[in-house]
Amino acid sequence: MTSFMDRLFYSDLNGRGNYTFYLKPAACVISARRAGTTAAFDQMNKYFMIQEMPVVSSRYWNMVHGTTPEEVKKDKEGLYTMRVLGRNMAFQLRCKEAAFRLGVELPKKETPVFTNFIH
User: Fold this and answer.
1) How far apart are CA 79 and CA 76, in angstroms?
2) For all residues of the chain together, what is the average pLDDT?
3) pTM for the complete prediction?
């Protein structure tokens, strides 16, 4: 998964740089057989944050558990978390749409500054 995300988020898609993702609400969802998914969840969210994408949250980490779709359907807490995430994402998208209708502009982007943390 990481190599795919590296190619997607660090490539210059359509010659537009990271403007492709800039301020688009994002959320990752992890599906797992067992524990250990929080590290993947953290790693995925970092891709969104480095591209200045607001990360939409749920009430807990966005993950479901099960080895088959049938098992996932039994993960009532995970499914509840997904429903909350869906409602929150829909709200964020409606807010962004309303802002554009009212003429609220996106923040101006600065030229990135890269340092080696010494200077």
Assistant:
1) 5
2) 86
3) 0.81
